[in-house]
Description:
This protein is of the alpha+beta class.
Amino acid sequence: MNQIQGGFDIWIRPMEKRDNPTVTGIIRTVMSEFRAVGCGFSSNDPEIQDMYTAYTGHRAAFYVVERDGEVLGCGGFAPLAGGDEDTCELRKMYFLSELRGTGVGAKLLELCLFEATRTGFKRCYLETMEGMEQARRLYRKYDFRYLDKPMGDTGHSGCPTWMARDLG
């Protein structure tokens, strides 16, 4: 587990099977908040029912963020569906509103990029929403660049913003 310094205890740790219902709830809550529900959005992906199993495969990892023992955020990476073998996708990095602005997004992103690089990926891709300005600023800070079209075949046709960065 990685502890983040601050006035309270925030920990990033690998997801455990017991976290499945909480992670599903976080994804649905955040996506509803940004009016991103239904077909074409990650809140409709079948994998959100069992994220633990979905990310226990080769070259994938998923983490949860705890504050004082309560899971309030999540995120991870996996190979980009329909992409080349050198590209991973940053997936389902969402935080409940009470965790936003604490700096934990940067820490989780750094962990995902480090582990993706260590796992052998050369590029990281993500999809996001125009209303998620705080997240988009974070991605730009970490050298993600806007793309003219989507990569791979994520099924997230509702996400109009595509970004990627080289790893290594």
